[in-house]
Structures are given as structure tokens and as C-alpha cells.
Amino acid sequence: MGACLGVCSVLSCVSCLCGSAPCLLCGCCPSTKSSTITRLSFTFLLLLGTLVSIIMIIPGVEAELHKLPGFCEGGTSLPGTQGVVNCKSFLGHKSVYRMCFATAAFFFLFALMMICVRSSKDPRAYIQNGFWFFKFLILVGITVGAFYIPDGAFTSVWFYFGVVGSFLFILIQLILLIDFAHSWSQNWLHSADEGNSKSWYAGLFFFTFLFYAASIAAVVLLYVYYTKPDSCAEGKGLISVNLILCVAVSVISILPKIQEAQPHSGLLQASIITLYTMFVTWSALANVPNKYCNPTLLVRNYSTTAQPYEQQPTQWWDAPSIVGLVIFILCTLFISIRSSDHTQVNKMMLTEESTATLGGGSPSLEDGVHRAYDNEEDGVSYNYSFFHLCLVLASLYIMMTLTNWYRPDETHQKLISPWTAVWVKISSSWFGLLLYVWTLVAPIVLPDRDFS
Length: 452
Fold this sequence. Notes:
Order of helices and strands: HHHHHHHHHHHHHHEEHEEH
Largest sheet: 2 strands, antiparallel
Number of strands: 4
Oligomer: single chain
Helix content: 55-70%
Strand order of the largest sheet: 1-2
Structural class: mainly alpha
Distance between the termini: 54 Å
Number of helices: 16
């Protein structure tokens, strides 16, 4: 209760600071846009839900969740299953699904409410940018209700929602990563043209070499740990295909015609995409449901139809999940605080281009106190509904990441890693490589369009 009151007091402060009008910032904070504060506040609510989900799968906490009224029917069994199943075996999985359902439902509600908001004068814009304490109460209410959802088909159905949402969020990650890679290369090459070119080119070479070295090391380790000389054909095929595609992408990025159309394209961007592709490949192989080919396959609680129950310790974390969690946090913060340097990405992501194009306010400093400035006087600076949909997809992605894409089997006797997870991740890596290649060849294929 004390922790909840503490969080409420923090959100009350946010409500005071971040209203629909430009809000007063503490002296230690820099002047910033009111739209950025709003996005960061919603992101904070998402991260708060993520933190609660993580706490719920800590072994000591997970073991106590069966005490929640109605959450574990009868304390020992799951309704709608054959035989007797130890409910405690699935508490972590159930709690993460319900917590992430609550955050997804919360942001989906706001996505519906904010459809077609074009002006900050719209009454709904005041809801978007203020009333934070009440938003927190709504999120708490949805969360409490989510824990009373009957098991039935909820987990199976919500699993497929998570698969689709995670796939789309991975694509958003890839778009942001490709945009970041292009911006990094362009900024450093521009700095090299202005002066001290040796240092900037040396930096480009160093990071390009570092990323390719890490990618090669990853390929070697994947072959060592996820393949066997006499078996594991799937793993060998997936690693080999992605390796060939990454080599092809790297070659395409330095072709003369590509360099002529895009002088700033090069191996730095290709090395970043290659390294991320190796990470996605690693994450996919970690879900291969074959212990012989996947030594990192996590041990899950197994329940028996006979009593007494023999419950094994649950392990929810592996290295790909930790890396995925870090990427998730960086991506959500990236969506909240940064706009792209490229017009095409801003149009795709429906975000603001710059304060100059919006004609909004500007930073102000009164009596030595920093003030947030309203950059939405002439119109909204980003698409409210699309932003909330991104957070819906982020909620689904973190749900799948924290549960390692596992799901109960048909008899609810054990948690399994389905092949669905493997193919969704691999197909997303292929789509990402295809998207990057398109950013290279688009100026050549469509010469009449402006891709600057």
C-alpha cells in the first residue's frame, strides 16, 4: 500500500507538471516540448507495467501469487483442463499475460479515443496531455480486472495476439534501427567533410569493424551451440541463410550504382543491420523446441496428474530475453523523445519533423526557471492514435519476451516453446533485411521521388 501511495504521489506531481498547457519544469530539467513530456509520461506507465510484470516472475513473488482471490482457482487446479494441474506451475506465465493485457487494453482505449485528433484545441487533446492521476487509476482498475479473467481459452487466444503484435513491433524496431544507422553515417560523414576527416573516418572504420567482428563471432557461436554434426538441420539452415543474406546486403550497400545514388550509404549501416539480424537469429534458435539442438531451452515447471505435486523451480530468464528487454526499453524511449532526420520515416511513423515545420512555441526561461513550451499551438505534432498503437504493440512484445514465447500445451501439463516463435522471429529478420535493401535501391527504382 505504501508503494502504491508513493507511485500515486509521483503521478500527482506529473499531473501538476504536465497539463494540457505548457507546464512548469523543475530547475534541473532542460526546456522541452510539451508533446515530448506527454509521450514520456505514457512510456513511464508502460515501463511501470513492465516492472510489475518482472516482479511477478521473481521466484519468491511468483510463489505467493496463488493467494490472490480467484487467480488460482481453488489454489491447486486450472478450470477447463483434463486431470489435475498444479496452478502454481503457471503463475508467472498467467500474471505476465494479464498485466500486459491490462497495459495493451489501456493504450488501445486511448488509441480509439484519439482517432482523428488534428488540433490541440480538440477537447480530447486535453485528455491526452493531462489528467495523469486519473489515467493511473484507470490503468490500476483494468489491471485488477484482468486478474479475474477466467483461464479458459484466454491464454491460447492472447498468445496469438502477442505473436502478431510482437512481429509488428519488431518491424518498428527495424525501421528505427535502419533510420538510426543512416543518420549516424550521414552525420559522421558530414562532420568529416567539414574538417578533421581522419578522426571521423577512423571512427567509422572502428565501429564498422567492431560490428562485423561481433557478427562473425555470433555466427561461430550459433553454429557451435545450436547445431550438431549429425542433426539440427533446421538450425544449420536458418543460420546459413541469414549469413548469406547479410553478406549479400553488405555487398549491395557498396555497389557503385548504390553509392552514386546514395553517397552516404556504406558498410556501417550494413554492419549494424547484420549484427541485429544475428541477434534475431539467436533469439529464434533459443525457441527451437528441441533440447538436443537447443541447449538454452529453458526448464519449465511440469505438473503431474498424480499427487503430491513435484514442482521444479521456474526459470524465466535467458540471455536473448535480457537483450530483448534492453532493446525494448531503448526503442520505446526512442519513439517517445526523438523524431527522425528523414522525412520519409516521419511520414511512415506519423511523427513530427521539426519545430520549424510545426510553427509551435519555443523554449522559455522566466525568473531563472525552465518552462516547457507548447509546440502544438497550430496542430498536433504527432499522431496520437498511432503512438498509442505503438505502445499496444510494445505491450504485446514485452509479454512475449518475458515469457520467452512459451505457451501451455493442450493438456496444460507443461509450458512449451512452439515453432511459431521461431518462424515469426526469422521472418521478421528477413523482412528487415528486405526493408534495408529497399532503402538502398529505392532512389534507383524510383528516380522521380525525393528520398533525401
